[in-house]
Automatic annotation (TrEMBL):
Name under which the protein is recorded: DUF2141 domain-containing protein
Signal peptide coordinates: 1-25
Alphabetic keyword roster: Signal
Any single Pfam family the record assigns to this protein: DUF2141
């Protein structure tokens, strides 16, 4: 009787774990960034994905996912997998010289291309998280990002 109880308990526990992992798998999504407007294929694209306004868009330490990828085509598609439901904003840098920094000129203006999800208007400084955030809720989403080059295309 005790042996039967243990077997039944083990089946219940394993069944619960299977259901929990299946439920979690259904909640994760993929957010794909399709980046256009590249002025050349030099260097790499560096992405930071943020789930809150904290650190957006310049402090990658606050990003939930980060990656740099070599530019192979234009437009470039880059996927960010296993995101929980929520709002996410993507910041991308065309790192033409592969130094993983946003290079600036003597006036402080960016010399490399940059962009954000939802392509907000850039006036005098970076956009707010709310201007760039897209909703991700259990489905796969693609957002298009058009790079901007302040010092010519």
């Amino acid at each position: 009787m005790l042996k039967r109880f243990r077997s039944l308990s083990l089946i219940i526990v394993l069944g619960s774990l299977t259901l929990a992992s299946t439920a979690d798998a259904g909640l994760s999504s993929t957010l794909t960034a399709e980046v256009g407007g590249l002025r050349n294929r030099n260097g790499q694209l560096c992405f930071s994905v943020f789930s809150t306004s904290q650190g957006f868009p310049t402090n990658g330490a606050n990003a939930v996912q980060k990656k740099c990828v070599k530019i192979t085509t234009s437009p470039m598609k880059v996927a960010f997998k296993q995101l929980s439901p929520g709002r996410y904003a993507i910041a991308v840098l065309h790192d033409e010289n592969n130094d993983k920094q946003a290079n600036r000129n003597f006036l402080g203006l960016p010399t490399e291309g940059f962009g954000f999800s939802r392509n907000p208007t850039i006036v005098a400084g970076p956009p707010k998280f709310t201007e760039s955030a897209v909703s991700v809720a259990g489905q796969n989403i693609t957002t298009q990002i058009q790079l901007k080059y302040l010092l010519g295309q």
